[in-house]
Specification:
The chain has 355 residues and is mainly α. The protein has two domains: 4-100 and 150-209 and 320-349, HUPs (Rossmann fold); 234-315, Tyrosyl-Transfer RNA Synthetase, CATH 1.10.240.10. The protein has helices at 17-33, 44-47, 54-70, 87-97, 102-106, 109-119, 128-137, 146-149, 151-161, 174-191, 234-242, 259-271, 274-285, 291-317, 320-349; strands at residues 3-10, 36-43, 79-82, 166-167, 200-201.
């Protein structure tokens, strides 16, 4: 029996270089190692927590699916599926919610962040007590929906219903994974069973890759001017890189790098050869560096990575038959295990049929 790997990405738009290095390339590596039973899905139900336009939801699912396949995920080697194609997930979500406290959900960092956003509260001048009062006490509280609150239950179900051993996710998902383990233990202890196992994060033993953005601070995200999409064409991509934030340049030999410059070097390390990284590092250290040259090289090397993927994405997006076949196969495999888990849980919880 192979160990089970499972991960998913929320269907909220196109994937960027950060998703590629942080998630997709790892998924592909796990698939190619061949020692895991690997499962990758598109979390469209999770996307509903923030009310996507019904006209674009399906397209968002389709673009992530195409990006999965274009990056090298292979429906013959991995189970690739859409969350909503596995209705057992929704039923187990209801059952598991009976063992989840609203207090622990309200204390989850991702919930507080999203609730703050929905209520228009600034993060800085707020403490935890306020957010709870705001949610319960204001008229706008309808914007903070129960789906948002129970996001971690749904994610735990994604994982537990497949009995996943390893869940490759970024640091921002660590708390959700911790809750998953807690819910698994709780279920087992409430019913006196050893049924669910506790999943672990997975990083190939190394530190998680950080992919910085272009706006000089923090990691690559979907905000304006910060992010390179796998689907950006060469012109757009060059323009974005050339506009990346820099500083006025080193004044003295061997001076420390500012955050925006460090970020450009981190990107260069991801996409370029060690020789090129060394060349520009030396140039920085002896103050001869020209950021324009660095950016030109960086843009070209990013294009070398993304252009072939972009081509495949476009091809695959136009191949509805291939897309349908891939996720139909995936849904069948995912449902087989999910329905078995659901049946077991119903049994354990004492839900019986008359017929
Ligand atoms: N919450 C994850 C994210 O935003 C997506 C996700 C949903 C997920 N269900 C999952 C990841 C199960 C791993 C396993 O990135």
């Amino acid at each position: 029996m192979k160990e089970i790997v499972l991960s998913g990405i929320r269907a909220t738009g196109q994937l960027h270089l950060g998703n590629y290095y942080g998630a997709l390339s790892k998924f592909v590596r796990m698939q190619e190692e061949g020692i895991y039973d690997s499962n990758f899905f598109i979390a469209d139900l999770h996307a509903l927590t923030t009310h996507p336009d019904p006209k674009i939801l399906h397209n968002n699912v389709k673009s992530i699916l195409s990006e999965y396949l274009a990056s090298g995920l292979d429906p013959e080697k991995s189970t690739i599926f859409v969350q909503s194609d596995v209705p057992e997930i929704s039923e187990l979500y209801l059952l598991l919610n009976m063992h989840v406290g609203i207090g622990e959900l309200m204390r989850t960092a991702s919930f507080k962040d999203k609730a703050r956003k929905q209520l228009g509260i600034k993060t800085e001048n707020d403490n935890d007590d306020n957010i709870e009062k705001e949610i319960i006490g204001t008229d706008s509280n309808k914007r903070v929906n129960a789906g948002l609150l129970t996001y971690p239950t749904l994610m735990a179900v994604d994982i537990l219903i497949q009995h996943a051993d390893h869940v490759p996710v970024g640091k921002d998902q660590e708390q959700h994974l911790e809750l998953t383990r807690r819910f698994a233990r709780r279920f087992n202890s409430v019913y006196g069973v050893e049924y669910f196992k506790e999943p672990a994060n997975f990083n190939f033993g190394g530190a998680p890759v950080k992919v910085p953005g272009l706006d000089g601070s923090g990691k690559m995200g979907k905000s304006e001017g910060n992010c390179i999409y796998l689907l950006d064409d060469e012109k757009v991509l060059r323009k974005k890189v050339m506009r990346a934030v820099t500083d006025e340049g080193p004044k003295e030999p061997n001076s420390p790098m500012s955050e925006p410059i460090k970020n450009l070097f981190t990107l260069l390390e991801l996409v370029s050869t060690p020789d090129k990284v060394k060349f520009f590092t030396d140039a920085y250290n002896d103050c001869s560096i020209r950021y324009g040259d660095l950016k030109k090289e960086l843009a070209q090397d990013i294009i070398n990575v993304t252009a072939p993927i972009r081509e495949r994405i476009i091809d695959i997006q136009n191949n509805d038959e291939y897309l349908a076949k891939a996720v139909r196969m995936g849904a069948e495999k995912a449902r087989a295990r999910a329905s078995k888990t659901l049946e077991d849980v119903r049994q354990i919880m004492g839900i019986k049929r008359f017929w």
